[in-house]
Amino acid sequence: MMPDQFLFAVEVMINGLMAGVLYALVALGFVLIFKASGIFNYAQGVLALFAALTLVGLQEGQIPFAHLINATLGTDVHHFGWQMPAILAILLTVGVMILLAIAIERFILKHLVNQEPIILFMATIGLAYFLEGFGDVMWGADVKTLDVGLPQGASLWVEEKSAVLGGEGFYGFFVDKLDIVAALVAAVLVISLTLFSQYSKQGRALRAVADDHQAALSVGISLRFIWVLVWSIAGFVALVAGIMWGAKSGVQFSLSLIALKALPVLMLGGFTSIPGAIVGGLIIGVGEKLFEFTIGPMIGGATENWFAYVLALIFLVFRPQGLFGEKIIERV
Amino acid sequence: MKLKLASVALGALMAAGPALADLVFPDLSYRTGPFAAGGIPFSDGYQDYFTLMNERDGGIGGVKARVIECETAYNTEKGVECYEATKGEGALIYQPLSTGITYQLIPKVSADKIPLHTMGYGRTSAANGKVFEWVFNYPANYWDAASVAINYLLDENGGSLEGKKIALLYHNSAYGKEPIPTLEALAAKHGYTLTLLPVDSPGQEQKSQWLQIRRERPDVVLMWGWGVMNQVAVQEAANIRFPMENFIGNWWAGAEHDVSPAGAAANGYKSLNMNRIADYPVFEDIRTHVHAKGLAAGDGSNVGKVLYTRGMYAAMLAVEAAKKAQEIHGTPDITAEMMRDGMEALEMTAASMEALGAPGIGPEFGVTCAEHGGSGMGIVQQWNAAEGKWVALTDYIAPDDEVIAPLVEQDSMAYVAENNLSLRCE
After folding, report:
1. What is the mean pLDDT of residues A87-111?
2. Which residues form a coiled coil (chain B) (predicted)?
3. Which of A66, A147, A305 sits opposite B200 (nearest CB)?
4. Distance between CA A41 and CA A47 in Å, rounded?
5. Is residue A205 one of the residues assigned to a domain?
6. 3-state secondary structure of B333
7. Is A248 close to B196, i.e. CB distance below 8 A?
8. Which of A35, A237, A289, B177 has its CA 20 to 30 A from that of A119?
């Protein structure tokens, strides 16, 4: 029989890995856009919020802009009266995210071709504020319950099987079923994205644009199409992240703040690597949870937010480009 | 031409004249941002009640109430901007619904001589009217809430908490830390052990804290949360199968939207409340005189909810204080200083609440020059997930003044020393 304290540490580590997967899901969206266009997309967290709001709105049959319509026309309409199956609502939300990507390209990015990265970054800050307000007007600011049939709560199977490892004070490992689903979804997502970028024509075009915009343009790759494509994929990844986080807390405006959790992951994993986002997420997840478990009680707890950044900074000292980032060598 | 312009300007001034006589109640609301879900129903209730006064009663003492809404997004800087932007309009009272904004406004309202009402939040020791002339926190404050929770637990456990383990899960901010001194003092008195579990804002990720709760198995978890922290905590409690009846939130962690995302799993969760939930007759008046005329502050869907009721109750207390001020000074056109006098003479009785169409909406209390904190009483309510409503489990429970009064005295006297103030009401 193993000592309980050791088993608790293992449990914290397992849960850290699971939390890391959720951080990685958010970080993935940043990486995709940064890789293809060199833009640090400040609006990625808001994209997750907007996607989740749209999903719940469609599923519940909520009339978009109902408050505005009622205030202007003096009507009293709120719902279409349908309850849409989750899968259909997800597909329609993907459609909305593609439309959003087209709109972002048409109204923002198109006008900023060849601008400095900082200009594009500033544009995404504007986009974040706009989308947050737009989502508010479109779907309302109340907390919405997200139910797409995902399991939640402790996995009793894991709990029962592992309970024998420890003594009286050990109740088996706690693993949230939602976290297991999130890990599986993240794995499928990463494999699909890797296959897509390695073996499909569009994927290769995407990598070409990432390597060199002008060279890609010269061989006939449409930069505008690639941008729409990559923002659509980032929108899809945002939807997945929005579903996983929204299932825990309900869909509400603080969902956009999950982006804060992705920043240390990006610093650690590198802004240009999909595996980097995953590995970075896992390291941050495990690191912050273990630190909170071991050191937290001695210094008053609530260490996770800052420790994630400290961990990322420690890695940066040794690898400034991040674990998997590209080393930029500029010759003079 | 100059003469023409001058007469137009004079005409405009004269036309604007009556508007200056309105009773101005700024509403520092937050309908956007991460805390909007709590800000919207409160603001709807606050504004709807003033509209009701205008539409049903022709104003307060015959003078129309004018609400100026200013969006703070629960951001302290924006809250201060809102204060600065609205105070010149003849503001009678501020209700910022944020402890952070409250701390910034305390010195400002004291200098500008405008009352600040922080109902169940803000600086707890502001209950001492001898020190805080312009700040009121009736009917109850955070320390009262902590004590009410412990008194409820004492009652549930045959009068003893000896050897019990109580954990406080709190928002790692000035707000969340407020009950700690009280809970520590009460732990020394009643013999329970207190574990502190801070959650960093906004509280979307709480796995570490709930794993610790699962390991240490406290008998009771108390929660001082706000915003997304509440929903996540309720879900995580359900995930680890923590007995919901032993999980008690304070009155900022006990609204419908705090429990609804967890669905049936939230059943049995308890919270404190300073305003009992019921289908009050005043709601019918609001529907008839405000909503039916298209004058609702929001979409009308929040009537009767916990935070709507609290917002309406806050407005009700402001209106009653304004009436009192009109009575004391013999004029319907009151100033902020007169409003303060009205607040210091406010008395809420069972009969007065019934007359207002809201019997038992709050505890009975009276305010005096020295005592700005009210009775400090609160109820415990429990969530019934099947019916989707809060059910009151208790009547109003009194806090332990023996413990709280010295803490209020100590903290407010420290403020006196820091700011070199002299005491009033003596």
Report:
1. 95
2. none
3. A305
4. 10
5. yes
6. coil
7. no
8. A237
Chain A CB contacts of B32 below 8 Å: 132-133, 136, 141, 253
Say what the pTM is.
Answer: 0.91
DSSP symbols for B75-135: -HHHHHHHHHHHGGGTB--B----HHHHHHHHHHHHHHT--EE-TT-S-GGGGBTTT-SSE
ipTM for this model? 0.90
Q: CA of B291 to nearest chain A CA: how many angstroms apart? A: 11
CB contact under 8 A, A304 and B208: yes
Write the burial class of residue B171 (CB in 10 Å: 0-12 exposed, 13-18 middle, 19+ buried).
buried
Provide, as residue numbers in chain B, all residues whose Cβ is less than 8 Å from the Cβ of A78.
299, 301
Return the DSSP state at A180. Answer: H
The number of domains in chain A is 1
Q: Nearest chain B residue to A146 by CA: give it.
A: B261
For chain B, list the domains and their CATH numbers: 19-140+277-376+406-419 (3.40.50.2300), 142-273 (3.40.50.2300)
Instruction: Provide the shortest C-alpha distance from residue A243 to chain B (in Å).
Output: 13
What pLDDT is attached to residue B302?
92
Å between A66 CA and nearest CA of chain B = 9
At B7 the pLDDT is 54
Q: Give the residue numbers spanning the domain of A98.
A: 39-259
Average pLDDT, chain A: 90
Query: A95 in a domain, yes or no?
Result: yes
Residues of A in contact with B260 (CB under 8 A): 143, 145, 250
Whether residues B32 and A142 touch (CB distance < 8 A) is answered with: no
Give the number of other CB atoms < 10 A from CB of residue B302.
Answer: 24
Residues (pLDDT < 70) of chain B are: 1-20
